[in-house]
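We modelled the chain as a single entity of 222 amino acids. Its sequence is:
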Amino acid sequence: MRFPVTRRCWISLGSNLEREASIRGGIRGLRQAFGPLILSPVYETEAVGFDGSPFLNLVAGIETALRVGEIRALLRRIEAEHGRERRGEPEGEREGEREGEREGEREGEREGEPEGERFAPRTLDLDLLTYGDLAGEIDGYRLPRDEILRYAFVLGPLADVAPDERHPIDGRCYAELWRQLLVRLRDAHQAQLDTAPLSASAGKSVSGWSPLRRIELALGTT
């Protein structure tokens, strides 16, 4: 008799519309769907690619025997229950395999979403990042997600709650990956200051700079 395999999965959460209520509602929905959660701290990050309010972001860990397609269906349902609208997204389109997809997308672009969705405010964004240590296309969805290695608002919270866990493809632990990404982001930010007008950049340093700002937000336990 075969028993279902239970896997640790990581899910990213983000919101910049009714942020606190949306994040709390998303957490309640995840608990109802998957049971106990592992939650990272909540961080605030600036909206990139469009003019909008800053986002709140965190990651949540679940233990589940559900398939990838079943998990994603539950995430879409929770998003919809909290006002998320996906305008013009073709049904069944494989995320990350759109025509013209390119490396080096600006931060804020989401694979598998039309341009208007990538650069738009949202009440609740739930993305499945990993499925145990599996890698590849599973149920038409590519895992682990590229966002882990590219975006501070994903990798930073993940390094908080799973510092020693290793990326299924890269092989390095999330704490090491975060340290290296943070150095690159600091160097890029310092370069911007160095090329800015003297009146704007004089005396500024990025020694203590971080792309993430921690927010205290009570998320409850039930």
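As a brief sanity check on the tokenised model: The two ends are 34 Å apart (CA to CA). The helical segments are 19-34, 68-81, 115-118, 147-150, 152-161, 174-195, 198-201.
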